[in-house]
Write a structure and sequence with these properties.
The protein is built from ten helices and 13 strands. It is α/β, with parallel strands linked by helices.
Length: 363
């Protein structure tokens, strides 16, 4: 184990600590290290079991507040997960989406550049833009980004995230690493509409909700788009490999005077290329898992239905048709490769969703 993980005087700031990825990261930090955690979010309902933990301090606040940004940047390691990241909001709330995905991260990056903190910034696989069905691997540093027209407001999020990446990479003196998640899934992902959130969550939570409510799964434009769904546990393992290297572990740059220099000023794709599936195939897999969990025949569940993207999400919706990550950089610099197969990740996510929401399914 990296001796830094044993350092009880070290504090990691996790911004977006109460969210899906943040809650898993918090658990892992408390289980795998002796670190303290400074957790910031607008709500902490996923963290009820951690609220009184002796190594945690939680702040209910927003990065819109400069005093909060300054406080976060006092910690040596800052992980920024805070973002509006559900596509159903990219059209109607474009300005808020841009503030949350560009203005706030840019302010935090500026404060970290001044304080000398290492900023691990969560970007998105969506910075590669409107990828076509025939797109190949999305290479970390060389695949061009092509977006839909300005009228397709779906791209408000991706353009803000891309600008944030450019800002971070251009900021003098900042020690940074960018992480681009490829459709992480697992327990605590998103919400159940009408129970603990409103609107349309991302596909896994949306399909899980429909299954629990006995409604047909909606396939946007026939469900032809493909994604590589990646277990959140692999994502957390990636972060620990990154921390290990950046804080002077065995997998650093080999440059002894600058521990882990190989992982600074780098953007990593974090995804599982072996888990590619179309959304229509995902629907069939989830129906089969749900039928098994309930002990019923899959034919008793409603058949999926196709809907147009604009009809479902509203004007300005557009889509990426394939998102296949190159994970070569994570392998080369960290020796990391995602391991959890699709079926295992889906079974875990859906079983959790069913157990967690079954009694609460009525809005
Ligand atoms: C979203 C975010 O915009 C990304 O930034 C984020 O990184 C990504 O999720 C992620 O989870 O990593 P997207 O993959 O388009 O991007 O999100 P989903 O809403 O989960 O949609 C996936 C696909 O399923 C899309 O083609 C969508 O049209 C389709 N879909 C979604 C359905 O067919 N039915 C639904 O009920 C929901």
């Amino acid at each position: 184990m990296n001796p830094r993980f044993d350092d009880s005087s070290f504090t990691v700031a996790i911004v977006g600590c109460g969210g899906f990825i943040g809650s898993h990261l918090l658990d892992a930090v408390l289980e795998r290290t002796r670190w303290r955690v400074f957790g910031v979010d607008l709500d902490f309902y996923r963290l009820q079991h951690r609220l009184n933990h002796e190594r945690c301090e939680f702040l209910c606040a927003d990065l819109a507040d400069p005093a909060v940004v300054e406080r976060i940047a006092q910690f040596p390691l800052v992980v920024n997960l805070a973002a509006i990241c559900t596509p159903s909001r990219y059209m109607g709330e474009a300005c808020e989406v841009i503030r949350s995905n560009y203005d706030h991260p840019a302010a935090l990056a500026t404060a970290c550049a001044k304080s000398g903190s290492w900023l691990v910034h969560f970007s998105t696989s969506e910075i590669y833009g409107k990828t076509a069905v025939e797109s190949g691997e999305l290479l970390e540093d060389s695949t061009p980004a092509v977006f839909g027209p300005v009228t397709a407001s779906r791209w408000s999020y991706a353009t803000a995230k891309l600008l944030a990446e450019r800002f971070i990479a251009g900021l003098p003196g900042l020690r940074w690493t960018v992480v681009r998640p490829f459709n992480f899934v697992g327990p605590y992902m998103d919400f159940m509409p009408g129970v603990d959130g409103e609107g349309i969550p991302r596909v896994l939570a949306n399909f899980s909700t429909a299954l629990l409510r006995g409604e047909p799964l909606k396939l946007v434009n026939g469900g032809k788009a493909k994604r590589c769904f990646t277990s959140v546990h692999d994502a957390v393992d990636f972060l620990f490999a990154l921390f290990d290297a950046g804080l002077g572990g065995s997998l650093g740059s080999g440059n002894e005077t600058v521990p882990g220099a190989g992982v600074f000023s780098q953007a990593f794709n974090v995804g599982n290329p072996g888990n590619e599936v179309s959304v229509a195939e995902l629907a069939q897999k989830m129906r089969a898992i749900f039928a098994k969990l309930r002990g019923v025949d899959v034919s008793s569940l409603p058949e999926p239905q196709s809907v147009s993207g604009e009809e479902y999400y509203g004007a300005g919706y557009d889509d990426s048709m394939r998102r296949m990550p190159s994970v070569a950089k994570a392998e080369r610099l960290l020796g990391f490769r995602a391991r959890i197969p699709l079926d295992t990740a889906l079974e875990e996510s859906l079983s959790w969703f069913v157990k967690h929401y079954d009694v609460a399914q009525t809005p």
